[in-house]
Amino acid sequence: MQGLFDAINTVCSRIQVVSDLFWDFPANFSWYRSIPILGNFSLAIILLLGSGIYFTCKLRFIQVRRFRHGLHVLKTNKAAMTGITPLAAFFLSTAMRVGPGNILGVTGAISIGGPGALFWMWVSAFFGMATAYTESTLAQIFKEKRGDEYVGGLAFYGKRLLKGSAAAGVLLSLMYIVYALLCFPAQGFNTVSSVGQIAEVVIGRAISTNSALYWISFAVLLIAMVAISWGGIRKVTKVTDILVPIMAVIYVATVIVLIVVNVTRIPWFFYAVFTEAFQPEAVFGGAFGVALIQGVKRGLMSNEAGQGTITMPAAASDAAHPCDQGCVQAIGVFLDTIVICTLTGFVVIMGRVWMTDQAAAWFDMGKLPKYLASATELAPGTMFHTGVSLLISVCFGLFAFTCLLGFISFTEICASRISTKKSFTLVIRILCLAVVSFGVLTSIAGMDLGSLWDLSDFANILIAYCNIPLLYLGFSYVKRATDHFDRKDGTPFTSKIAGTSVPVWDEKSRK
User: Fold this and answer.
1) Burial of 32 from C-beta contacts in 10 A (0-12 / 13-18 / 19+)
2) CB burial of residue 1 (10 Å; 0-12, 13-18, 19+)
3) Quick one: average pLDDT of 388-412?
4) Contact predicate 79/87, CB 8 Å
5) CA-to-CA distance for 193 and 206, rounded, in angstroms?
6) Residue pair 396/104 in contact by the 8 Å Cβ criterion
7) 377 close to 352: Cβ distance less than 8 angstroms
């Protein structure tokens, strides 16, 4: 078993070299870094931030203008005859967005780039809201009806924008499947290991990863995945409609309590974030570009704006207008990064473990132990600390589990986009279970396959490089839809408004 893990770690480390090339190019060349100002920005940063700024300007700050409208759409949660409601789509996309990365990713970004990385996460999220609006509106425009469900997203609008190329649809579907497979092991690992963490907090002692608890948790996880994820998107949303609000409320409430107890540290928190955003301390790399790239990289990994990965839940919504779901998905980015990631940042930065005598040990810890060590500093008293650790561990497990549900559901949709044969779908299902099982077995073996987190970085930027050019190709349709949306003249959205054939919307207009 050890030999297998070592071999996989070796392969992962090779792929990480390619990942760094994608993220850092051309900032990994000294001639480029010597260029004033521009030398701090890699192509990936320019593409992601630049696209968000472009969409924000062209849509006249849609994420600000229509923020309240998005909230209104969520509040008026009418039953959907076809597909799912906008609120259910919001919860489903949030289940995929709000994952362990909201704890591990933020902690990792701050431990590498310093407190200033959080500032750049805010910046990327603000402009990323416009990107999320654009890709989600595009997914709505080109969604398709299958039975009593709507399907769509990256592979669907990619095919339409590339002149109906079947090969493009298949390739983009395969890319999402590969993206999900790269994420499965870490989520399986995190789900089962969180159960062990919860048990350790409750009984007050360490539990062997090879114990019956871990094996039973493994079996329960597989059964739950099959029972929920193989039942169609509506069955999945019945679960995420319950779990997402619970995990969000628990996590937000827990961290707010920590903040209130340590309210005197709040001014210093903002001082550290804003000053270190441009002049990081040497212990964090000491370079502006380090904080910048960590903030944008982890911001993308958390809120997924620009990746095209949240476009499938967006397309599944029975929205009254394509832009309605665009506004809702922009709020999803706000919730994920501006709210939840910021709360994580409060804990890590206000804990100030990296400024104490324990700093050396803190930097050597894994991401979750770093976060828990920081939370310990903010939670005085044994009982208080135990309660905080328990609640954070519960949230961590729910974050990972709901991510798995979303990934598996949309992997299956992409599989059906490639082939409608049941045998092909079954193969993809088995493959998903096998890859998740590998991640769980890694946890049971007591190993930390940290390289898988790096593989997620590679998957994120690779799919973003494919998706963002498509957003520019389809932006004229988004702009038409937005102009119609802003007019509020009571006319339905149809092919005539869109400037291209949109059968689903023509059918809705006749009802």
Assistant:
1) middle
2) exposed
3) 82
4) no
5) 12
6) no
7) yes
